Amino acid sequence: MNFKKMTSALLVAGMCTAAFAADGEFSLKGNVQTQATKTLADDDNNLSSFWIRANIGGLYKSDNFDAQVMLRIFAPQFGNKIKDGDGKTTSYDKILADLYWANYKWAYNDHAFNIKVGHWKTDWSQSTHFGTYIDKDLTARGLWMRDYSHNAIELGWKTGYSNFNAMIATRDNKANTGYVRIEEDLKFDFPLEAKFAYRVNALDLIQNTAYVTHRLATYLSFNPVEFFRLYGEYGFIFTQEDGINEKVSNYVAPEYKYLKSASYHPFYIGAEFAPKSGFLNTLMSSLYVEWEHINDRADLTDGKNIDDWAWTVAWAKKVGKSKLQFSVYSGNEISDVGFAFRLTSTIK
Length: 348
What we know:
This protein is mainly beta. The chain is about 10% helix and about 55% strand.
C-alpha cells in the first residue's frame, strides 16, 4: 500500500470513529482572503500579484482524537489552465485539499503522546515574511504566512515545558523521496519560547542516488514587557559534497539548489509592538519590524541580481471578524520597495 492510500485509509477510519464519539465536538471553519502586492520596480503591471481565495472545512476535537479537513478555493482567474485536444486553453476553478489530517492522542500521568498522519502545515518561524529555514526555499518570501506543507506520519510527546515531534515525510506517492524531521518546542512559564529542529533528506538515499542535505534551525521569542516582543531565527543548511554520479537514472537533485554553496546560514531578527489598550490599540493590533540576511543568496537564483539583506515593516489590525494586514518590504534588491495588503474575513 503506498503512502497516500495508507494516509487516506487511516484518515477516513479516524473521522468515522470521531463521528460516533460522544465526547468530541465538530466545528466549521473558514475564511475569505484577498491579497495584493506591488513592487515599484514592476512598472509593466498595475499590481505585481493579486488573488482572492476561500478556505473552508471542519475541525473535530475530542480527548483522544482530532481531525481536520480544509479546502482552498480559487476562482478561474487565479486557478489552473489546461489545454484540450484542439490545443485551446480553458480556465477552471482550482480546489485544493489544503489540510487533511488525523491526530490520535493518549495521556499517561504528566505525559501526552500523539500520532498524527495526513497532510498539514508548519508555520515554524511566526515571522511576517522571513524564516522557516528548516523547511522553506530560501529564495521565497513569506508575505504573511511562512508555512510549509508535509505529507507525513508524526510522533509527538509533550511533558512539562517540552513539546517534541518526530516525523517521516514523503514528497511522492511511493515514499521514494522524503525526509526525517525532528523538532523540540520549549514554552516556559516566563515569556520565552525556544524551538530547535533538524531535517535531513534520509528517504532520498534508500532508492536513489542523492546528496545529503542537513538543515538545522533555532527560533527564539522573548517578551520583556507584555506589549513588546523580540524574536528571531537562525538556520544552518549544509549539503555533503560527496562525489556521486549525477547522470544515473535514479539521481535526485538537492532541494532548492543548496549544493551551490558549501553552506548557508540564514538569520532574521524582528520586533513586535502590540499595544493592549488605549489609542494605539485602536490604531493597530501589532506593528512588526524585521531584518533578514542570507549569504550568497544570488547563487540560489542562478546569478540573479538579488541582495543578501532584506527588510520589512508590517502593520496588522483586527476588526471584528476581519483582520487587515499591510506591509512595506524589500524586493530582490534592498532598494526595491514593495507593498503587500491582505484582508482576511473569518467565517465560523
